[in-house]
Write a structure and sequence with these properties.
alpha+beta, binds zinc ion, 2 domains, elongated, single chain, 200 residues, 3-stranded antiparallel beta sheet
Length: 200
């Protein structure tokens, strides 16, 4: 299931089955990876409820969402946050997301290259000791001292990088929507269509 966030001015919100207008939209640029969006929200809270639980309750709870869909392939929307009441909670959520992104982007590594065969060695900065190792590939000694390092790089894997981008993107989207005084709506992509549902 992929969540989609969107914000439009309050007076432009329409009820399902009408679709939300294309003009005056604010939408975060999230990667097309539902798992990354879910993971981005993991560990973040909104009004003392885990953000993901709130999304599930809004979209998959007993009362189905009633507001317009953001577009093809997505179901009706629900209000995730409504300013001004939810403004403080939204700003806290934005802070939390940015903090999580910073924390998880924190680990860095120093990189060396074998002078014989160019094999790369990356060691987390916290574990770097000035030792000499034998290159696994060619057996040449590689001096792991800081002066000979090629430099630092982030140890974040591509998936975590996407998760952190989601967090930053969502945080600035939430802040911008609150600054404009617009409600934040959420929907999820419709279940895979079956033949009889065509044209819905
Ligand atoms: Zn080597």
């Amino acid at each position: 299931m992929g969540f989609r966030f969107l914000s439009v001015p309050g007076h432009r919100v329409v009820e399902h089955p009408r679709a939300l207008p294309d003009e005056d939209r604010l939408e975060p640029e999230l990667p097309p990876l539902p798992e990354a969006v879910e993971r981005a929200l993991a560990g973040a809270e909104f009004r003392d409820v885990r953000a993901r639980d709130r999304l599930r309750a809004l979209l998959q709870g007993d009362r189905p969402p009633k507001l317009g869909s953001p577009g093809k392939g997505f179901g009706p929307s629900a209000v995730f946050a409504q300013p001004p009441n939810d403004l403080p909670a939204m700003l806290r959520l934005a802070d939390e997301l940015e903090m999580l992104a910073r924390r998880e982007a924190g680990e860095r590594a120093l990189v060396w290259k074998c002078t014989e065969c160019a094999a790369r060695y990356a060691v987390p900065v916290s574990l770097v000791r000035p030792v000499s190792i034998r290159c696994e590939r060619c057996g040449n000694p590689v001096e792991l001292n800081v002066q000979r390092s090629l430099g630092e790089e982030a140890l974040v894997d591509p998936f975590l990088g996407a998760v952190n981008n989601c967090r930053q993107e969502l945080a600035s989207f939430f802040r911008e929507a609150m600054a404009r005084g617009w409600p934040v709506l959420v929907s999820e992509n419709a279940r895979a269509p079956v033949a009889s549902d065509e044209g819905e």
